[in-house]
Amino acid sequence: MTTFNKRVFKRIGKNVKIYEPCIFSQPEKVILGDNIIISEFNHFMGHSQIGDFVHIAPFCSIAGGGDCILDNFVGLSAGVRIITGSEDISGEGLTNPTIPIEFRSRKTSFVHCKKHSFLATNVIVLPGVTIGEGAVIGAGSIVNKDLAPWGVYIGTRRIRERPSEKILELEEKLCDLTKFL
């Protein structure tokens, strides 16, 4: 487990476990809530805000230089890729990071995973997407548009509902319990 100097991050909460190796390209732009586990071999680039009770499994990345928000109770399975920006291939500039910035054209955006959302193994989320509260995305999916709350998705196709009542009831009980700890 990595013991990061708390002053490196913009903010770091209680009970945060970060396992080695993990790379934070700009840790001063990262806000970490409470009760987080970040497993081995993860890479974070750009602004990231990670809520409470979040697990990020091995081999995930948040890249692209934009903003990423993972609300409370979000889960990222192994190999998830969250892309918050990319090269503009419209012909307005040259592409790739070896080119001086004045010759490039980039588009940066955001990805927002709302609370209780869950991304299964090897999901790819493209820039400008909001994953609705409680939404689950099946393994290997590519998500290029917003997903509505409390559904189970393969890619952007909703295949069934995900009941919220029990999950929200358990969240409330856990929050009541932890406010006294």
Distance between the termini: 23 Å
**What is the succession of H and E elements?**
EEEEEEEEEEEEEEEEEEEEEEH
CATH level-1 class? Mainly Beta
Q: If you consult CATH, what is the topology?
A: UDP N-Acetylglucosamine Acyltransferase, domain 1
Strand order of the largest sheet: 2-5-8-11-16-19-21-22
Largest sheet: 8 strands, mixed
Task: Provide tags for this entry.
1 helix, 181 residues, mainly beta, single chain, UDP N-Acetylglucosamine Acyltransferase, domain 1, 8% helix, eight-stranded mixed β-sheet, six-stranded parallel β-sheet
Describe the protein.
- This protein is mainly beta.
- The chain has a single domain (about 10-180), classed as Hexapeptide repeat proteins (UDP N-Acetylglucosamine Acyltransferase, domain 1), CATH 2.160.10.
- The chain is about 10% helix and about 35% strand.
- It has one helix and 22 strands.
- The chain has one helix spanning about 165-180; strands at about 10, 15-20, 20-25, 30, 35-40, 40-45, 45-50, 55, 60-65, 65-70, 75, 80-85, 85, 105-110, 110-115, 120, 125, 130, 135, 140-145, 150-155, 155-160.
- The strands form four sheets. An eight-stranded mixed beta sheet has the order 2-5-8-11-16-19-21-22, with no helix packed on it.
- The protein is globular, with a radius of gyration of 17 Å.
